[in-house]
Amino acid sequence: MSVPAPRLKLYHYWRSSCSWRVRWALDFKDIGVELQHVSLLDGESESESHRSRNPLGYVPVLERLDLVGNQRFLSDSTAIVNWLDEAFPNASLFPGDSWNRARVRSLAGIISSDTQPVQNLNVLHRHSGDPAEQKRWAQEFIHQGLAAFERAAAPVAGRFSVGNDFSWADLCLIPQCYNADRFGVALDDFPTIRMIVAEAQSLESHHSSHPSRYEPQN
Question: pLDDT tens for residues 14-27?
C-alpha cells in the first residue's frame, strides 16, 4: 500500500526572484502545492507568524504537512530546490554526471550567492534612502553578476546553461534577468544569456510560474 505524499504549501512573494525559482521548480516537476502570498512591503514578512516559519522573515518558505498534522518548514530557495529534486526525482534539475552537477551549482551560485542578495530590499534601503542611488547600486551588481555568468556559461552552454537540459542554474538565471529588466539593465552584452532566456521562455513552466501570474490585484 503506497503512502500518500505530504501536503506542501509555499509561502512566497510574487516578484521575489527566490520565490520564482521555487514556483518554477514545482511547476517543472509537476508537484502539487498550495501557494500563500506573503507581502514584503507592508510588514507581513516581518510578522511573528512568518518569522515562526523563517526567523529571518524572508521568502520563500516551504511547509510540509504530514498526515497527522505535523508541520515542517524549509527556507532558502537552494535548500528547497535541492530537497524537491531528491524527494521528487522526476524531471531532475541536476545532471547525472557529477562534474556537470558541480558546474550547475557553480553557475547558480554566481546568481544566488553573489548577485541577487545585494539587491534585496533591506540591502538597498541600508545602502541609501535615495531611489535613484538604490537603482544605480542594483544596476552595478546585476551587470557584474551577469557578466560573470556569461563568461562562465559560454563554454558549457547548449540550449541551456549547462548543455541541453534545463537545470538549477537556469532557475537562478532567468529570474535574475527579470530583475535586470526591472532595473534597466540590458542583456545586449550577453549573447549566451540571451539565448538561454529565449529557450527558457519556450517552456510552459516558465509561463505558469512567472511573476505576472501572481501579482496581487488590488
Answer: 999 999 999 999 99
- At 85-118, the pLDDT tens digits run 999 999 999 999 999 999 999 999 999 999 999 9
What domain range includes position 112? 98-206
Measured distance between the N- and C-terminal CA atoms of the chain, rounded to whole angstroms: 46
Q: Look at residue 212 and tell me if it is in a domain.
A: no
Cβ(75)–Cβ(56) under 8 Å?
Answer: yes
Q: Where are the alpha helices (DSSP H) in the chain?
A: 17-28, 48-51, 77-87, 98-112, 121-127, 131-153, 168-182, 191-200, 204-209
CA 153 to chain centre: 18
> Total domain count for the chain?
2
pTM, two decimal places? 0.94
